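On to our target:
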Amino acid sequence: MGPSPHSSFRGSHCALYRYDYTLYYLNLPQMGIALAATGWWMYIDVPQTPKAVVGCVIVFNAAFGYSWGPLPWLYPPEVGRISKLSSDYRIYRLLLQIMPLTFRAKGVSMSTATNWAFNFLVGEMTPILQEVIEWRLYPMHGFFCACSFILGEL
């Protein structure tokens, strides 16, 4: 069982409105390590594997649920504009503005449809990929977390 929806909302809400994405970047390594460990435990396939995989999934779900999980539901009603605060390109501020009401309903419904479409795609592809690439599926997703972490720091 992962974190409660209230803690997920609270954590994401704080990160969005403080103009601070530290929460998201700090949880990427946790998610990546949990996914890589899941793949490793499935690869070695010892008697402790089932319990270890459950532990890794719990760690991943906690990190994801507190950071990236609620983001597609919180951010779409708002439009973000990035402005540079200084000559250093690594210092940015995210200015959040409420969408105009004439577009807000359409924007939120488009983002929800996109979210559902990709969730459907992941749900359909995961069993196929588990059969084809087996344990390598989890380190692959962990690699994507590492890439997101590195690209987010650029």
